[in-house]
């Protein structure tokens, strides 16, 4: 299953390599990884999406905490956080495209349906910008390909996530998460190493 971790790390050279090497040692595949500035000076925010067994989450979080460059780590579920992805899609749209002169109007209509924006218009192509859930982006790409449009380039950021703010129990129930009293606090304290199951064998080197 997919796990989404948000880690606050020191903004120093080599940090990304350290994190990637950690997941390699744990034999966990990183599906997407985004890095950028955070609200703290000298601290970067990483959003890491990885494919691992359900029981592996605590071990991965504890391993991230073992890195001295790590400040905080939090695991986010879909109902507990706002999760978005940015995508740029360049589509062939000119006299020589499969749909000919009508391709532009058809792409504009699809953009309106999926709430995408046209950010570049060239004689032979159109570039769309879309922000939303991964399923929404996949839906637009699928419609474009099934409609015989030629997708020239696709660039995606991967997931970006942030834990939701404090809501009433009614709102939390509608979101499918725990009540305000039961909901976990963002960036919980570092776990005790002795309480963690050892699910992975790390390299000796």
What does this structure look like?
- Strand 2 and strand 3 form a beta hairpin.
- This protein is of the alpha+beta class.
- The longest helix is centred in the last third of the chain and has 13 residues.
- Strands 5, 6, 7, 8 and 9 form a five-stranded antiparallel beta sheet that branches. Strands 2-3-1-4 form a four-stranded antiparallel beta sheet, covered by helices on one side.
- It contains five helices and nine strands; from the N terminus they run E-H-E-E-H-E-E-H-E-E-H-E-E-H.
- The protein is elongated and about 60 Å long.
- The two termini are 28 Å apart.
- The protein has two domains: 75 residues, 2-Layer Sandwich (Alpha-Beta Plaits); 74 residues, Alpha-Beta Plaits (2-Layer Sandwich).
